[in-house]
Amino acid sequence: MPTESALKFVGAPTWEALSGHPVHTGVWDDVNQVPHVSLGRWADLVVVAPATANLLARAAVGLADDLLTNTLLTATCPVLLAPAMHTEMWLHPATQANVATLRSRGIEVIEPAVGRLTGADSGPGRLPEPEDLFARVLAVLAAGPLAGRRVIVSAGGTREPLDPVRYLGNRSSGRQGYAIAEVAADMGADVTVVSAHVGIPVPHGVDVVEAGTAADMLDAMHTASADADVVIMTAAVADFRPDAVRESKIKKVDGADPEPITLVRNPDILVELVGRRRPGQVIVGFAAETAPDEGALLELARDKVARKGCDLLVANDVGGERVFGRDTTRALILDGSGTVLADVAGTKVDLARRLLEAVADRLDDR
Ligand code: C5P
Fold it and tell me: Which CATH number is 150-243+255-364 given?
């Protein structure tokens, strides 16, 4: 159902030939079938892709000046809008207010992708890739393989405070955890991400609980995982923390060596969660290793899956700037007995998809 503006990009004959259906934009064609009401009532789902800033504004105020906006007013089914526009238009308070209004009415407005736009500019505002839109459609129709499942994903790196200004941290960016949360939501799951110091936006449709230290994360994961079907420990949890947090900033003293810092062990959250696993719950661990070769990585991974007792383990070699902060990764997925189920080289989203397929298979078997 193209708008007048859409027909300036792709003409009606192209739409008609490709779809095998007549194309109308106004409300004055086939009036005997009352299409401005009947189409909205008939549809199982209305998707507007791309949704321009103008369409979002018309939908938000309830204008009914063409067939599409009439249909949006009469639709009783779920409605999914995929905005695409230049970054300035997307970030403009008027557009953001329209998006908030539409979401408050239960309409799903997808977060646009970040990337090259129609000019030389790039930024948020790009139409998501067709396969991502399709995954959303499946999720909205609750046909995804994780529909009705509750999934908890930890992400990012914990920071263990030394004094009021310093901490011990690590280089985890949270990208892999957020990619898993996003793909799980696309597959229909109800997703909560327990997030430690992640600098990227939370995927749309995912709940977030902040947990900055290993101790905070332990509490948050216990609470969140109590009724979960799937628990995925992607976070880089500090193995050690300073034995005490100094109340004031540690000072340098001329001529004196710094005071040594004593470290104590943090609890292993993954092992604790495995110890309290609900019947049927699937628990996934990660192993970020620096291994000299593939054989050594596999050995470390097999040892870890046995020690931790999780159902699945993702092992990657994080040495040599290959993984941290990047969009790509290379990883092995192992089951609880140490058998390699997949060797994935690709984006963090590719790894998330492959991992969640393995999770869904396990849930189906239980
Ligand atoms: O033992 P290692 O730190 O290599 O194990 C990594 C896995 O264990 C990851 O899934 C990580 O989230 C989890 N972990 C944990 N609590 C810790 C340390 C690691 O849950 N204190």
Answer: 3.40.50.10300
